[in-house]
Specification:
Elements (H helix, E strand, L loop, with lengths): L2 H21 L3 H11 L5 H11 L2 H13 L5 H22 L4 H22 L3
Length: 124
């Protein structure tokens, strides 16, 4: 890995980290597409790499900052965590078994649906 690649990855990490802290996104919306388009990773490898990067230490720092300001609902977070672990297991099993092209299309449709909802449907 050369210095340009390392610098690019650091920039991607900084951008995703800033967006994650600002609006709660980063991994799926920023890092996965850039790893596919810029670094040439497959959709599955980009997703797996992003999930590995988002492990406890990274998420904890951002969540701790919100917690300090009283902006974390721990009961909700713990209940969501149970579903997230189970869903993550089965979702990853499916993701590694489907073709990268199908997975990219699923990913793109999800981002479009969320964008449309936020732009045109969300009333708050």
């Amino acid at each position: 890995m050369n210095a340009t690649t390392i610098g690019g990855l650091i920039f991607i990490g900084l951008a995703a980290g800033a967006l994650s802290g600002l609006v709660g996104i980063g991994g799926g919306i920023v890092i996965v597409p850039l790893l596919v388009m810029v670094c040439g990773l497959s959709q599955q490898t980009a997703q797996g790499t992003t999930l590995a990067m988002l492990s406890l230490p990274v998420s904890f720092v951002a969540a701790y900052t919100y917690w300090q300001k009283g902006m974390v609902e721990w009961k909700i977070a713990l209940i969501l965590c149970i579903g997230f672990v189970v869903g993550g297991y089965f979702g990853s099993k499916f993701a590694v078994s489907v073709s990268p092209l199908i997975l990219k299309k699923i990913f793109a449709v999800l981002m479009i649906v969320i964008a449309i909802k936020f732009l045109f449907i969300d009333k708050k």
